[in-house]
Write a structure and sequence with these properties.
Layout lengths: L6 E5 L3 H12 L3 E5 L14 E2 L5 H7 L3 H7 L7 E5 L4 E4 L13 E2 L1 H10 L6 E2 L4 E7 L2 E6 L4 E4 L1 E4 L17 E12 L2 H4 L1 H7 L3 E6 L2 E7 L5 E8 L4 H5 L6 H11 L16 E10 L12 E3 L2 H4 L8 H17 L6 H30 L4 H9 L3
Helix pairs in contact: 1-4, 1-10, 2-10, 10-11
InterPro entries: FAD-bd, FAD/NAD-bd_sf, TetX_monooxygenase
Subcellular location: Cytoplasm
Keywords: Cytoplasm, FAD, Flavoprotein, Monooxygenase, NADP, Nucleotide-binding, Oxidoreductase
Length: 382
């Protein structure tokens, strides 16, 4: 096995990094995961995740965790309502016997993370380890973290997300702005703090469209609603807007202006002070990106192929990357680690190119003048 007696460092403890750690440990590898969160108990933000048969679910099968997934998934979380900006319902998945996304079961991010963490050997994850820098040392890397610690690894895998600090050690290829910026938010205890929208989401998802804008809401099992506003704005809008996104009143003032033609029902998202926001300009990498493979460093997930969230592919791509990379590193088919990594990256980039194009097409569709008509056509099989 190529990684026999080698130390492997995975930087980033998201689903992709944790899945890879689990799969490598099943093959007897010496793995550490370096995660910037202070502890495993940090609040996990973001919408529910729908796992796809050939990627996310396949990764969990290979990891021996599919039973744990189904013990923690939310069967109706994928049921969808499509609304216009005046809150008129155009499609109600809850009234159908078979949901549109019934083959893509949903799970909240926190339970998925717990499943993966609990599958790892004790002390695999080194918390409070935000990557700072690294340099070549012998045939591997010496990693340095912002907490002042350091660690050596023979092979390093960057799983540190869309704004990866390790990616520049592999390639200088820069991301391309998609034209869309999201303001992500989370309303806690939503049944009390946003009761009308909580009932409207009905334990599932809600997509609303109008004026080339989108508003996506997801109910989470712990009682919160996550939401994403999608707007066509300039790339530097976040800086130029002057909005302090830690200030609810400033964000609310922006929302009332930007979504001024929308029904006031949507403003209920801002009724509570138990709320959290972050702006996220949406980028993607060039469809033809490529680089020369290294023998001791590679990347997966958003670090390798970030893209907007409008196809539900992000976590699935990362988990598929994990099982394909684990296979390459633990098989006897390659003569050395550089050949194995080169094979993984070639297949990963080909797959990512196709998924990125599909995602960009979806992004444009959902922010077009006739988004609802197009969505209904797609969901009716046209």
């Amino acid at each position: 096995m190529l990684i026999q007696d080698k130390k492997i460092a995975i930087v980033g403890g998201g689903p992709g990094g944790l899945t890879l750690a689990r799969l490598l440990q099943l093959k007897g590898a010496d793995v550490k995961v370096y995660e910037r969160d202070y502890t495993k108990d940090v609040r996990v933000q973001g919408a529910t995740l729908d796992l796809h048969e050939e990627s996310g679910l396949e990764a969990l099968r290979r990891a021996g965790l599919i039973a744990a997934f189904y013990a923690n998934h939310r069967p109706n979380a994928g049921r969808l309502r499509i609304l216009d900006k005046q809150a008129n319902i155009h499609l109600d998945d809850h009234t159908l016997e078979n949901a549109y996304a019934e083959d893509r079961p949903e799970i909240d991010r926190a339970p998925l993370r717990t499943i993966l963490l609990e599958s790892l050997q004790p002390d695999t994850v080194i918390w409070n380890s935000q990557f700072a820098s690294m340099q070549l040392q012998e045939d591997g890397w010496q990693l340095h973290f912002k907490n002042g610690t350091a660690a050596y690894a023979d092979i390093v895998i960057a799983a540190d997300g869309a704004n990866s600090r390790l990616r520049p050690y592999i390639t200088s290829i820069q991301p391309i702005y998609s034209g869309i910026t999201i303001v992500e938010g989370n309303v806690y205890d939503a049944e009390k703090n946003a009761p009308v929208l909580w009932q409207l989401v009905n334990g599932g998802k809600l997509f609303a469209f109008g004026d080339k804008q989108s508003l996506i809401l997801s109910a989470k099992g712990e009682g919160s609603i996550s939401f994403y506003t999608g707007c066509l704005v300039e790339e530097n809008w976040v800086e130029q807007s002057g909005i302090d996104f830690n200030n609810k009143q400033q964000v609310f003032a922006w929302f009332k202006e930007a979504f001024g033609s929308w029904d006031p029902i949507w403003q209920e998202l801002f009724d509570s002070n138990d709320i959290w926001f972050i702006p996220r300009p949406q980028y993607h990498f060039p469809l033809d990106q490529h680089w020369t493979a290294l023998p001791n460093l590679t990347m997966l997930g958003d670090a390798a192929h970030r893209m907007p969230p409008y196809a539900g592919e992000g976590v699935n791509m990362a988990m598929q990357d994990a099982f394909e990379l684990a296979e390459c590193l633990t098989t006897t088919a390659f003569e050395n680690s550089q050949t194995a990594i080169a094979h993984f990256e070639k297949q990963m980039l080909k797959r990512a190119s196709a998924v990125t194009q599909f995602t960009l097409d979806n992004t444009a569709l959902l922010h077009s003048n006739d988004a609802i008509a197009k969505m209904l056509a797609i969901m009716s099989g046209q």
